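Lecture 7 notes: from sequence to structure.
We start with the chain below.
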Amino acid sequence: MTTSWLDEFPARMAEMDQAHLRRQRRVVTPDSGARLTVNGQNMLAFCSNDYLGLATHPALVQAACAGAQAYGVGSGGSPLVSGHSAANAALEHELAAFVGLSRALYFYAGYATNTGIIPALVGAGDAIFSDALNHACLIDGARLSRAQVHRYAHADLAALERELAQSSAPRKLVITDAVFSMDGDSADIAGLLALCERHDALLLLDDAHGFGVLGPQGRGSLAAAGLTGPQASRRVLYMATLGKAAGVAGAFVAGDDALVEWLLQKTRSYIFATAAPAMLASALRASLKLIEQEDWRRTHLHRLIARLRSGLRAGLQGSAWQLSDSKTAIQPLLIGRNDDALAVMEGLRLRGIWVPAIRPPTVPEGTARLRVALSAAHTDADIDLLIDALTALARALR
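Predicted structure tokens for the same chain:
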């Protein structure tokens, strides 16, 4: 009897189970503060990218409802046909002004933004220089472009400069996360831009985890580096997602007017996709106002980060677990083995705390970790509960 490759999937899934790599979805309902109901269990959550606690804010909900009443719940077409609503247009102007750049283009999803704009910028015969720890959407966009990809060691500007100097490609594109999603550390944006100036390269900066959290009034990593407004360079394209600190959905890319116009004309994931609904743009316009006006959210968040780090440094003394050197809302705790990380995750679940275990291929082999994500919705008491639980588990599993 002949066999089909379709018969291989059960065995391949069993291999994933053996390696502790199968992932599971959970049914989630928001609760008060930083709590979620997860598969029917009420839990204190440290897994959300809702860094400012805006996702359920009444002002955003009301704006979304008003947008739905004015525009309906669907856009009805791509942005270049009939989907570019007045709300979407206004949002683009407000996003550009907020990040201090000439122009912005609003996309329906962050992944679609990077996988679309990279092939629009470079192609066969060109060169991409990619940080080794970049997010999957940057990696996939680079692959789709058919440009030659040079992968430089994480945050190693000397290695990047060597690669740039040796390249004879007519177009050079440097791509990097601004805040790295699994380690929580930040790129040296000023250093990267200096190299791009020196070697005639363009810098694409993915600030998914910095927008709303870093910089004055939460204007992002580029603003934190002082590289917006009059200091903005035409060599920077700034991309950020709007489903994390902004609390809604979608993404945008901002930069020099000519570059953004080129992306509008050439990005397939923009041209051939249905536009984001105006109700979401309406909610995002309300979100931008809160991000700008409510500095207390960032102040509170950064105080919680310091509290967690101080408590874990004391509580985990003598443990093999390592707290990454991160000053951002992403606080990874490196465990090592996949099964050990899952055991710690389960130990927290039994205590009513949800922290996800992150395993390969998302992170390198042997570096499975808990990815603790903090939010302005957390309280001091929430942080202390997590510190106490992790300290107890470290002693029990030692």
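Points to note: The CA atoms of residues 16 and 22 lie 6 Å apart. The chain has a mean pLDDT of 96.
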